């Protein structure tokens, strides 16, 4: 599974002796890399954006905040291990936490259970105690800044936002922070106390429990000041506690110690805050397992070495593992996460460690070549790959029958697991193609008409939005700007590239006109995995389609500049019967 966005050509390969392995993420403050110490230990290394690095006042504040952050030693914080405050590009390294953020967990798996949210509140409250004891106020506590580990949450990026307050950009009218999670006093530029972090924790917990932020956010930052929080999706037993956290007056909010006590005494927790096995839903725990060996799963460095995508899953300990080697022709994998292709030289490990298997290849590292379907979509065909259930079962069969026997049953197992006739079924709404067929969606002369797909109704059309920088996304469902990574189905942008939502398929049209029906067909037959500004240039259109709801967004690019404003015109179509 492609866990991390690929490195770009301008990304560094080495920072102060740390080997950069993959991009963990990026945002308004800078970029975060998975890097390794000379001794091989993973760290999360954050570099700040150039406009911050060029400001002397920021550098002085950054050095001060890093010194304070080194004094934070909470069990639920990511420990600061190193920093380069005087380097040309300032950076900060913290312990690597093998787990998704709260934002990623909710985006991929939905709202978290009440018990998990209560434990999350207790763990983050204890982290805030440690942060506040060091004289630091986080100021940017949000779902992307809380990671979920097997033994509890970890709060990251504490103190850095305060350094950004000194930057000249703030004086130009920009407020540092995430609108949906900022306390009213922070938006109004009033004195900030630790109570601001309690407000942010309440908003974060509301997002975790309900799946959406309690405030709509946006560039105006006004909703947290003037509106009551929307807790309609939050379970009833949590609303009273979160309402107290989201009080407009800082003095009305509970302290971290009170939050810990309330969470501990809640019946769903059982009188003790323990982060034992089962504190997280099973699917989130599976994400943690996949991140436990980042070197085996992180993407390669740069476009010259893309990483193949293989469906999520891992063989059980002790079972045979295989290295999947793609052929020389780069191929887009239907249904793969954004930014991924298959092509040589590509190797993706199934399971956490490579084990020499298979008759192919020579030398100490032997590889088993598993089939990668590259044939064009034709009548009765679907794009297929080996799925995680198949990989696990094949591993078990391999242990009994040997490698060759295990590989030979892959296709039969995949068909069996899909059910009768599934292997021959086309995806919903897909048009079939046959030899001699014309463009996408056009059957060959005399061929039967494709099966009817969903009918689409327009929710809105031609909504024009301008994001001032990559700290804002285009929220598809509302047709409004939203803080980056604050809502699950949104189109982001960074480093000269549009970012399609996860669990969505994308298609880039040759011109500026694109209908929902055309998108539904093309996303099945000609999906794209990257939408660079060079390709998705002004005047062109692209679309994204949700794999779960089949809803579609059509985006027409008005203007796009790396590091600057991006303007789009967007339509949203809801799929019906």
Describe this protein with a few key phrases:
globular; 20 strands; single chain; 577 residues; alpha+beta; 6-stranded antiparallel sheet
Can you give a write-up of this model?
The protein has 577 residues and is an alpha+beta fold. Helix content is 26%, strand content 20%. It is built from 17 helices and 20 strands. It has helices spanning 50-53, 56-69, 102-109, 114-133, 160-164, 168-171, 184-187, 195-210, 223-226, 236-245, 256-265, 282-291, 294-297, 388-401, 403-408, 410-418, 516-525, and strands at residues 14-15, 18-26, 30-36, 42-48, 80-84, 91-95, 146-149, 152-155, 322-325, 347-350, 455-467, 472-475, 480-483, 490-494, 497-499, 504-508, 531-532, 541-546, 552-560, 566-576. Strands 1-2-3-4-6-5 form a six-stranded antiparallel sheet. Strands 11-20-19-18-16 form a five-stranded antiparallel sheet, covered by helices on one side. A five-stranded antiparallel sheet has the order 13-12-14-15-17, with no helix packed on it. A hairpin with a 2-residue loop joins strand 14 and strand 15. Helix 4 (114-133) packs antiparallel against helix 11. Mean pLDDT is 73; it is low at 168-174, 298-395 and 397-451.
Helical residue percent band: 25-40%
Largest sheet strand order:
1-2-3-4-6-5
- The portion of residues forming beta strands comes to 15-25%
Mean pLDDT: 73
Number of helices: 17
Uncertain segments of ≥5 residues (pLDDT<50)?
A: 168-174, 298-395, 397-451
- The backbone outline, from C-alpha atoms, is globular
What is the strand tally? 20
- Whole-angstrom Rg: 24 Å
């Amino acid at each position: 599974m492609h866990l991390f966005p690929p490195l770009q050509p301008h990304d560094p390969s080495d920072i102060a002796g740390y080997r950069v392995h993959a991009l963990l993420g990026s945002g308004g403050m800078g970029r975060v890399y998975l890097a390794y110490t000379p001794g091989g230990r993973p760290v999360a290394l954050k570099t700040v954006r150039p406009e911050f690095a060029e400001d002397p006042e920021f550098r002085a504040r950054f050095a001060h905040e890093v010194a304070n952050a080194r004094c934070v030693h909470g069990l639920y914080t990511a420990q600061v291990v190193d920093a380069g405050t005087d380097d040309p590009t300032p950076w900060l390294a913290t312990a690597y936490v093998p787990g998704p953020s709260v934002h990623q967990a909710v985006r991929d798996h939905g709202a978290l259970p009440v018990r998990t949210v209560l434990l999350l509140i207790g763990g983050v409250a204890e982290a805030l105690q440690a942060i506040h004891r060091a004289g630091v106020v986080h100021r940017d506590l949000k779902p992307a800044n809380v990671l979920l580990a097997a033994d509890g949450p970890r709060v990251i990026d504490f103190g850095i936002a305060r350094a950004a307050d000194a930057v000249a950009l703030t004086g130009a009218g920009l407020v540092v922070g995430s609108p949906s999670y900022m306390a009213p006093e922070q938006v109004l530029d009033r004195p900030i106390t630790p109570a601001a972090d309690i407000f942010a924790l309440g908003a974060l917990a509301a997002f975790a429990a309900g799946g959406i932020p309690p405030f709509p956010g946006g560039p105006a930052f006004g909703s947290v000041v003037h509106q009551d929080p929307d807790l309609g999706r939050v379970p009833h037993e949590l609303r009273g506690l979160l309402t107290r956290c989201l009080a407009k007056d800082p003095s009305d909010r509970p302290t971290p110690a009170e939050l810990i006590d309330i969470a501990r005494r809640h019946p769903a927790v059982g009188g003790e805050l323990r982060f034992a096995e089962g504190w997280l839903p099973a699917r989130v725990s599976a994400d943690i397992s996949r991140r436990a060996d980042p070197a085996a799963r992180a993407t390669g460095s740069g476009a010259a070495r893309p990483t193949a995508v293989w469906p999520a899953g891992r063989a059980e300990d002790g079972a045979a593992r295989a290295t999947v080697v793609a052929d020389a022709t780069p191929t887009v994998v239907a249904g793969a996460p954004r930014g991924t292709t298959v092509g040589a030289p590509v190797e993706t490990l199934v399971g956490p460690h490579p084990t020499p298997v298979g008759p192919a290849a020579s030398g100490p590292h032997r590889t088993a070549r598993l089939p990668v379907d590259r044939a064009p979509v034709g009548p009765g065909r679907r794009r297929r790959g080996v799925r995680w259930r198949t990989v696990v079962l094949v591993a078990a069969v391999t242990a009994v029958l040997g490698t060759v026997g295990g590989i030979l049953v892959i296709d039969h197992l995949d068909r069996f697991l899909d059910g009768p006739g599934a292997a021959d079924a086309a995806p919903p709404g897909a048009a079939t193609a046959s030899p001699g067929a014309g463009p996408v969606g056009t059957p060959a002369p005399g061929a039967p008409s494709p099966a009817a797909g969903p009918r689409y109704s327009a929710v809105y059309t031609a909504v024009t939005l301008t994001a001032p920088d990559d700290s804002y996304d285009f929220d598809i469902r509302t047709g409004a700007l939203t803080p980056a990574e604050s809502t699950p189905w949104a189109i982001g942008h960074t480093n000269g590239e549009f970012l399609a939502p996860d669990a969505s398929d994308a298609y880039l049209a040759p011109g500026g006109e694109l209908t929902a029906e055309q998108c539904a067909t093309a996303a099945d037959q000609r999906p794209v995995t990257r939408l660079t500004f060079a390709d998705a240039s002004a005047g062109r259109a692209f679309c994204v389609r949700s794999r779960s709801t089949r809803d579609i967004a059509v985006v027409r690019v008005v203007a796009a500049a790396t590091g600057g404003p991006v303007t789009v015109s967007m339509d949203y179509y809801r799929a019906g019967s």
